[in-house]
Amino acid sequence: MTYAQYGDDDVLELTDQPTPKVGPGEILVEVRAASVNPVDWKLMSGGLDAMMDVRFPVVPGWDVAGVVSAVGIDTPEFAVGDEVVAYNRQDYVHRGTFAELTTVPVRAAARKPRDLSWEEAASLPLAGLTAFQALERLEVGPEDTVLVHGAGGGVGSFAVQLAARAFRARVIGSASASQHDRIRDLGGEPVEYGDGLADAVRELAPDGVSVVLDPCAWRSTTSTTSRTSPTRSRAAARATSTASSPSASARTEPHSDVDALPPRGWEGVVRPRGRARLFTT
Predict the structure, then answer these.
(1) Which of 59, 94, 122 is the last residue of a domain?
(2) Can you tell me the mean pLDDT for 164-192?
(3) Number of helices and strands (H, E) in the chain?
(4) Domain boundary at 122, 138, 153, which?
(5) Which of 172, 280, 278 is nearest to 223 (CA)?
(6) Which domain holds residue 51?
(7) C-alpha dist (Å) from residue 29 to 3, 16, 255
């Protein structure tokens, strides 16, 4: 699948492309599954042209699970036949994962967990790395109460289970009612979107929350978090799935002087514990 110009779905074409060359430090992967992320349509629409180099025709796709069919020189990490999962971030946008074969830098690949299906493995890299690195850089720990907005979405659902099970924090997740059972299964305490959200969070956490992760970049909750955390609270916003590599999927920028005032009704929801941070990808 390729597109030769920016546009909507109409620019997508099923085309024949040359077999990718396998350079040093790369592997050639026979694709078994690939996943779709918001960054795919943002790139295709031209919305990220100002920040990402593109070479047409573009094969879209970032996440992949498959089998190694060839290895480049200086690539001792993998052998032909290995099952791998990868976040296929290249130096420029051109060779994605919506194809039969794709080359992947070794630094972006890992062995596929045996207990995951191909589809499950392919859904993991970009959203999972974004969630993990957001929590890690926000220094989440067992003493924290973490509020995750968009907890039923890709990044949000990973963030809920990682915060609860790996970082051992208490997790409150905002989502539509249809997602609440799933959030409980992932280890979170659900609250519903819409009017009364702040009161619902306050009811579950009368002393406030210490960390807020907002993958959807809701302006109201982000502003609230930042402005009501003058001493040591942490906030993350705009985790929009353009991770750079498995070891550096996002950038965190200190954000101590916040101009936006909190919306009425959200005062006191965030526990005063530390500097707020603006998380961008």
Answers:
(1) 122
(2) 97
(3) 7, 16
(4) 122
(5) 278
(6) 2-122
(7) 21, 17, 40
Which band of pLDDT confidence, cut at 50, 70 and 90, is reported for residue 193?
confident
| pLDDT band at 194; cut points 50, 70, 90 | confident
Q: To which residue do tokens 């009811």 refer?
A: 203
Q: How confident is the model at residue 268 (pLDDT cuts 50, 70, 90)?
A: low
Regarding whether 248 and 154 lie in a shared domain, the answer is yes
What's the domain count of the chain?
2
Is residue 131 domain-shared with residue 26, that is, in the same domain? no
Residue 84, Cβ neighbours under 10 Å: how many? 22
Q: How many CA atoms lie within 13 Å of 94's alpha carbon, on the beta-carbon side?
A: 11
Joined tokens for residue 119: 């589809």
CATH code at 64? 3.90.180.10
Q: Which amino acid is at 78?
A: F
What average pLDDT does the segment 131-141 reach?
95
Closest CA to 85 of 60, 55, 114, 58: 114
